[in-house]
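Repro:
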Amino acid sequence: MKNILFFIILCCTTILQAQAPDKAAMQFYTEEWTGERFEDGRPKVADGILKRMEKVSIEEAWGIMRNKGFNNQFAGEWQILHPEAVMVGRALTVQYMPNRPDYAKRALDRGHEQGRVGAMNSWPIDMLTQGDIYVADGYEKIVDGTLIGDNLGNAIYAKSGKGVVFNASSRDLEGLEKIEGFNAWVKGWDPSYLRESMVTGINVPIRIGTATVFPGDVVLAKKEGVIFIPAHLAEEVVINAEFIMMRDEFGITRLKEGKYTPGQIDTRWTDEIKADFLNWLEKNPEKMPMTKEELDAFLKERNW
């Protein structure tokens, strides 16, 4: 009965999400998250986890989530402002749809009544906090689908210190390139202005290519694509990936030394190799990005 009630709340409030994101709905579809939340209910993954996520590969994150049953979290085929850079942050999600004038007028009027300023595409920017990434589904519209230019790009970076992931286009490529630290994953570039699009949801579940994205998901954006990690899995993804990196470095080191054969390293380790690995970590603490407590807890659960 409780789940049915929350579902009704979610459905009935979706049309108003552009003006007033619903905290109860947000908590409902991110109920696995038990940590800190923003005032509006969005999960707030710790800054330290976001920083450590920068070294995680897309493949490592993908593999860990697939094992958890999350099979639709990666989206590829992007045009990237700075392909050599990595961008990690918390998703602030926005849903755009083709314009319908009756809805658009009411949504705009309600937003202004509630104190929002300007056009609807500026409202999500006003909501950004440091560490957020503006993630928007603009239904892959290129011409007249440019969600931002360099003015809004500067505002986004000032608010979040990050950038954007748009299932749509952007304009002012040269201007955006001049914003130091800003980055963008978009479907194309076009000189046109945004026309005939409207915001129908802020901080609601959205589709980005082949991925489903929830507000508060950790965005890991690299040159091969973008993967969206549910907030409640972010720490687990980081620790698993860090262990894999340590394990691989140890294995390569010992293979080069000729101490073990590839067959010994690429299968379940013997107790002797496990002990050697832990001794290697003790002698090379700089190789361990996690805490000793995190490693001990991880090893209790891991099948070597």
